[in-house]
Amino acid sequence: MAPLTHTESGKGATEYVENVSEEKLSSVEEDADIQYYKTYDISSIIRKMDLRILPIMSALYLMSFLDRTNIGNAKVAGLADDLKLRPALYNWSVTSFFFTYCIIEAPSNLMLKKFGAKLWLPFIMVLWSACCVGLGFVTDFKTLLITRLALGLAEGGLFPGVAFYLTTWYPRSLIAFRIAIFFSAATIAGGFGGLLAYGFQHMDGIAGLAGWQWIFILEGVLTFIVAVIAVFVIPNNPQDAPWLKAEERQIMAWRIAHDGDLRVPMDDAFKWQYVRDALTDWKLWLNLVTYWGAAVPLYSVALTLPSIVKGLGYTTIDSAQLHTVPVYIVGCVFVVLAAWVSDRWMRSPVVIIMLSIAVLGWGLALGLPVKSNGARYASMFLACIGSYGAFVPQLVTLTSNVGGKTKRAVAIGIQVGVGGLAGGVPPWLFKATEAKKGYPFGFRSAMIFAILGICSTSVNWFLLTRANKAKEEMISSGRAAAMSDEELAAMGDRSPYFKYSY
User: Fold this and answer.
1) What is the C-alpha separation between 458 and 127, in angstroms, rounded?
2) pLDDT tens readout for residues 403-440
3) CATH of 22-494 among 3.90.1150.10, 2.60.40.1090, 1.20.1250.20, 3.20.20.80
4) What Rg, from alpha-carbon coordinates, does the chain have?
5) 38-70 burial, b if ≥16 CB within 10 A, otherwise e?
6) What is the residue-wise DSSP string for 103-139?
7) Are 358 and 450 in contact (CB under 8 A)?
8) Where are the domains of the chain?
9) 343-368 pLDDT, tens per residue?
């Protein structure tokens, strides 16, 4: 992987390094030249972090997304026929994953905060790799349902964990591009999964196992291998990174803790008050609406694209699997491009533009004649570009505007957890009974969710702009200067010195 270049020195609100105590930060401020830390060009440090952190995080998420969505490839390879699954039973087997997936997110982030990423992330990977292998040996709907529930419980902590982990390494002005790098693994997983499924399904009959069984078993084994590698390459935080010099660790500790020129770093201790702050923050719940507006169309692509492509006229198993690959490759490019633009411009306009492209894609798929296979296949490119391209900027709109480590960990967990339920919706939108009609209900529903995301993003943009103006008024009137350091530290992102980004 080539180095990710960066010429900026970071801006925005505060991010924090794991296990860096206030005493250590105070010592840095007392013993070092503060101006030196402010003006130091961190480009070389960022490149080191990019090369060491992003590849393994991307590999983790690639396996995560692959193992949750490979049921779509397995269906095309004969899963539903062999287990005698009616369409409704298959849909429940897909949806069940998200029931347990959504409840573990916030608790998992708190466990990651306690035990560190080096142990926690590989641990949950081992658990879900076992579940994935187990899917290769299910014999009926009951065992399939139970194993999918277990898979969701084991896998649920990965995405919010990595998102939170990256906020402890990078200033928020750089975070969207980095999250996009690891999230782009989701689009790679779609294409990679199609290629793997194409190969594994040709093992049909080996050891008495069907092709769809080999898809689950071998992808589970690959996940276990990645988990073992992760134990040896993931550092808990910049302070534990052996490939950073002592001075570089100090610089990043200071820069992240004072990101945004806050007068006082926020309180990072665990307090139930900060959990309550997350639960009552309007930004969380409004962003959840946007999350669903991006996630339902995204999962509509991820979970149903093989079946959609098959319904477009590519009727053989091999053709349906292989025709998903180009769609995901193009989507991957736009995941990274949209995030890169959002870091350097604004996030809300990027989300609106991307979701508008998704609306166009789903709308074309809906409006074109059913037999226009080529044109409707092309519309899937637009749907994938818009749905995947909007996802990271909308996610980072929340992570960048929630201050304090505990509050941020809980908020990310809830956003990804409750938002993750969106993944259970598409199987009920793209009904097998409508395949011959071209899935009109599914295309229409995905388009409506994208429009909902556009509306909620616009409202969020307006409210954040108004909140920033109120903070500026507090500073200009002198009310902010009258606040004590303790008050400012406890206020978190409500501090007048914390500027929201949008």
Assistant:
1) 40
2) 777 888 888 888 888 887 887 788 788 877 777 787 88
3) 1.20.1250.20
4) 23
5) eebebeebbebbbebbbebbbbbbbbbbbbbbb
6) TSHHHHHHHHHHH-HHHHHHHHHHHHHHHHHHHTT--
7) yes
8) 22-494
9) 888 889 999 999 999 999 999 988 88
